[in-house]
Specification:
Family: Belongs to the Nudix hydrolase family.
Structural class: alpha/beta
Cofactor: Mg(2+)
Keywords: Hydrolase, Magnesium
Organism: Sphingomonas palmae
Strand order of the largest sheet: 4-1-6-5
Shape: globular
Number of helices: 4
Number of domains: 1
CATH architecture: Alpha-Beta Complex
Protein name: ADP-ribose pyrophosphatase YjhB, NUDIX family
CATH class: Alpha Beta
CATH superfamily: Nucleoside Triphosphate Pyrophosphohydrolase
Length: about 160
Amino acid sequence: MTSDVSAMTVRVPRPAARILLVDAQARVLLFRFTPADRAPLWCTPGGAVDPGESYEAAARRELWEETGLDRDCGPQVARRVVDFLTFDRVEVTADERWFRVDVEHHNVSGAALTDQERELMAEARWFTRDELADWAEVIYPADLLAMLEETDVHAPK
């Protein structure tokens, strides 16, 4: 029996830190990305962990770079391993660690966006839970509403 190794996709490991940024009205911040090779999608702040960086340090850095907030993101609240195609067209297996940051209010400013983020990030928007439930475009992760509800128990009151 022969195997066709060329048909197998070799995925690159990608550790990543993602943030559930929630305001006092229980809305979550999402960014709309508009890549040329797929439909627009919305996702939370976050990104790849740099070599030698901890997930916690990456979460703080990504939060600052993408929103302008500089603060400790606290403990990890979720973990998931997912396969996807990056905007650079690299097949990855992402080991995502999720953090929740609650704020009273925040005006988003991309403090240090990459060139790619400036090109692909069309807007930032605070979503209510009702909007998440039936939004017309793709929202990542698909179970974001459930993640928010699961982490609500740990949120400051």
